[in-house]
């Protein structure tokens, strides 16, 4: 058996490999039999597959979180990658058994990310913002580095939340560098915190669901709540301009009321935060989709990009030398 | 001199009466001279008037909060009531001098309102909601009974906030009575608190402006902040379903994201709260406008009702006997 | 055989009971065989079920309006209740055979409803409105008390039209009581008539469809036509303010042009009518949905509430004492 | 004194001519004095003018409907034609005094229009539609030929209603000729009736206002009412398909619910009626505006065309020979 | 074997006939087997059909462009016509084998269309527009007379592009005749060219797809490109008013930015072009749909008409005599 | 006389300085006299002022492009800076007389900008894109470095077009550096060209108006035309993928059809181009507005930011050390 990963197989190639069951929906087919709609994953990505005529034993055995040995064929169905299953079984003694090895990970290590965050925090020269950021990052540290940034669409992988935050921080740095009028400490502090409420909104890195607090309150107000409580514990006045500015940045970062911000941006830095959030999310979604698209064709339609499909050019991309 | 109030004069009647200067905007006319755009008020309502060719002495003397003796004529200008000023001067020794006697007031006394609120609180049988409501009502008691419910449009008079809340509470009572499935204590608790953040969002009962917190955070998140802090002080867990339900009610009460709620209603009671809020605000706006409209004509266009104008029928309204 | 009703069975419990075939759609499955998509009902509500591999004899026998003896299991499929069919047959001699016993009914008897309507009509002190209301209610009496209020979504049960009208009348009474400015007779008259055009728009209480007049003219203009013809027969001038007010109430009751009203509300009472119509429809839809939702979970998405799903709290609701 | 008409004077030319006062709004200038905002007209069109520092005698004398001798200068103000008034006075004995000679008229005589309508009615071979059309045209004949088609924007001149109807009838004829599938009698009948409700919606050909019925019911439902009453008098069943089709045509002719139709078009002929209505209205509005626009420039923004301005080319238009 | 065409068979009649495979989508059914979703056509129109449990040999054999002998039954499925396939095979030697005989064609011959276009070109008296039109029509002549006007919805048949253009030209003629202010040569020139870019946007008359240029540039800018290049070759100045007017007509013909026009119409003729384009497209879509609808019923919902369904009256249409 | 610039004077300070008349609109005041609405400028920015009771000699003398000696006072009127004019006259012999010294300029010199553009062009390694960019930049060089980027709102100063392009190029560089998947040469080429059509759309750096081509064709299609013609002259095939990609980038850069792009972005790089265009435009608008806003207050509402006003914090911004 080779050791190729899911996306190292070519389309129409036969596959034999270990994969993690990411999700497993049992449904009834139009012929009355049950089938299982799987999402499998390994470190190269996720892929869907259907298991027809599933017996009760099958539906009991193939639960999310299990690792299986899979034989099948890589296919394209209506523009999307999927696997046609020939045979599958649970792993045995002595075969790979650690789910954490079968999930896509942020392309930067946790240590490297932490180092960059620390450098940015060092540049948050305003003491109130600095203390709030350090307090909350410490409080939610573990989840921050393991959660995805979203249930799906963009950065939906383990560590995606921290990695999305890091990418934005790099953009924030570039933008603050280019436009001296921007209050960089404010922009950095808000960038780091802006999606931290997702550690409360979402259930965790695996089989990610919205929590009740996520559904009824939402991550924007949840991070505001965290800031309010942190200020109380750190004896920072919530009536100071500093705190109103920081909270405004977080509350307004979705940009439009229709997107769930209770206020629209009314600070230069809040507008910038919103726009670099969009920019990073868009690029990440497109990167992910285009990585599985054939050159010279259009991708499937992307829900998070208003249902547009994107063209992957034939021409090989020659990058200019980067300094 | 008679003792008639502003709206006791007929259109085109000459007036002589004491009024309060509610607001006084100094502007430059197209001929280059300054004029003052006044809003005058007494207990019968507000009315606008223009003072042409104002000298520096005039603009210095006629400040908001002052009471003046006014001679003029009641007029209608493009459908709106206004006064043509003949002459005016500040009051002298011995003349009326207490601004609080010249503002429109809630049609129910503060004592009567408090009694009704207490009765409603008695019906909030859930101890967590009961304690939060009593804590916050006590904390903001003075402002709650003196603030307007809005800068303009609806309930824009002293005590309007409490009165709007009271009207809604009566509607909430009727609706909960009619539909047994409604969780009445939850609806009552949220009704009482829903606009309490306006005591922080607005600057006060006179010359009402938005505060910085009002502009950058907004009254919906401000009341959420108050609940979060109150729960901390009262040792009530913010993770309990009770508290998530109550906060959701408050966060969702504008109904639509476009109206500034960070979440839409996802509870039966939250939907009801939103709709009775709209109903009371609409009726109050229409009452106010129609009270100054001639029977058989259409009112001016009302901004808060999508710019619609409303017809005041000629036919005298005969109320049926109410039990 | 027990005598339990559909919704008295627990999820996953085996069922054996008599039900009415409310609707029966014959479709082709992806394997090329026909199946029947049923809606069954009894007095506890409606539920769907699929009958696979239906023979021509099956599709001929199982017609809407028939009563069958059904064996199966109650299930939840993607959040919605359904029945897995084991076996079914038409009823035999001596078994229950009256369809009217197997439909959901308004929770108030026709007699009780009539008494309340008569009381309200008594309070319509304007003679023109009073005569029009009595004339049209008498003309459409039978249909008014047997039709549903809508094809689906809200009050979609026999007698739903009268019951929805009654609920609104109670709200109208409460609102008119609270705000003395409201012309109560006008509000009551329009409330009673507002949806009466649905007796012409819809085909009837069973297998409800839109009629050609319903599709091409619509219930709003159909009730206007009824009022025009009634005025002719009762010798009431259509040019009187009375009649223009009443017709405006009916024409404007959907509130927005986009919802099919040819004019928006331009009377205080027309605005109130629209809002209490929405309020009652919303509560009724949510009541229906939540009655089948597990505590601690979210309901399915509700089309008539903009696709929102609603949370049913775990906490038992304790109603305050109602006077 | 020359006998030139308003639009026969060049821009910046001094004028001396008789004009009709079409409307006269008395307003207060920013210097506190009254002025009159006039619309003058003669058979060449309308033009606005301001009369500064109007005395009470002026405002009493210069009423709509009066004819005046005017001296002034033709000007362009912000792209719109206007007159700078030097002097004006009411006409004296022996001077022109018939207002009907000073209004713009339909470019086709009433007799010629009647002949064309009669020819079209002859082609309405369906007896029900034929009788309804003849009945209603006769009932409203006088107003139909004297009313404008709208308060402003398009065909806002005496006889505009009949002329707009006639232009559409010609388009309807051309379209029915080109597409044989169209039911021409239905299209012609509905075209003739579609705006006839405006004779009830509007107050008359001069100083045109909306009537109370126009505001509360609207011309679409008013013509439906006329058809309902006519059918009653002519003993034509309102339940026949014929009558439902005709009423649907009239109700749907605004095309979109947002434009006030209570139903959208669901007949081929209803869709065609809506589109030729739009086409004729657009062309007429643009014709009117461009007739006063300088070649090589853009017109003022046109409210009825979504605020767009239109370019009038420099190049002389050479019409091809028309057969 | 009869020689009836697809739509000459009645619903539920058994069929045996030759048809062209217009498209053939291989999909996986819910039971895991493959099936083919066909569109068949002959000169009477198109119809869909499903071929269940397709073997690899089937999917290999039944490719678009092949002609097959088909046995089956005409059916109606959810309001749309389809065929239930009993048996099918590829044609043999000696059986019909020319795909061009099995496609729907424009109802006017190519020669007749050319004659009408030449007459219109003769009326384009402006030499610049005349030369551009003749140059481009000659360049794209073959495609212009063989392409459909759209992938689907309206005029989706061979020659549909020229036929749609011709129908519009006839409307343009009628409108220019009725309103003398219209610059007829400009309207005719732009009408002829307005959709010519579709010969570059679409792949061809069979198995029509969007080209890469179609997807990335779109037919509106593609025809603009053609005009720019033609002007270069014909030495006509692109800065002349003539050329700006013509290009504006083409760029603005979708009417709204949302529909892909980079500018909205700012010429009378551009507005007219847009509206007659819509009118012809609407009528053609409705004609096509209603030709397969049973009298007295509603059609399926039509995507290109905002999802509305249309009623086909029972009453036989009697056309008036056309001169 | 001091040598202070407009914005070096404090609010309410008396001013005496030379300024350029940027625009001068003659209007009629409500008292019937003419006045001139000026925009004055010097290198510190623009400011408005009204000149009351202007004589014909005044309106003749004070034309755009003239330099005047102005005495007045700096004021704030409804949140916007303006000057109250005491006295003004045209400059005399020996006084400053070069308009180019009185306009706001790009904050980077033309030479420095050219150097950066050349460096970027060097990184456009694709020869087709490289040649097109160099060809068009050379063709429009002079205008590119002197035009504003817009009539108003953002970068509305001389050289603004090149400076806006340069700022975006720096952002493009930072983004391409951060995300290796981006085709940097394509992004750079399109960034440089994206607004170059404005040199044809706008009339010039002074008294900027839209040209006829700007109004009827628009800058997006105008740059596409330039690319088409350039490709013809450089013998580059317009059918190559290279050229379709580049044209798509330019056509799609407004992001939404509603904003005038005939196609939405369907390339990763096209999406990025659109977003960094928005980001730079937003920041530039906010910088400009906030530079005239008092700390601790909100700016006036900004049209180009959906009418939002922005808060300028009290707290002094301390920039972190930038490397």
From TrEMBL, chains A, B, C, D, E, F:
GO terms for biological process: rRNA 3'-end processing. Keywords: Exonuclease, Hydrolase, Nuclease. Residues 161-282 form the HD domain. GO terms for molecular function: exonuclease activity; nucleic acid binding. InterPro entries: HD/PDEase_dom, HD_domain, NA-bd_OB-fold, NA-bd_OB_tRNA, YhaM_exoribonuc/phosphodiest. The keyword Acetylation does not apply. Pfam families: HD (PF01966), tRNA_anti-codon (PF01336). It comes from the Bacteria. PANTHER family: 3'-5' EXORIBONUCLEASE YHAM. This is CMP-binding factor.
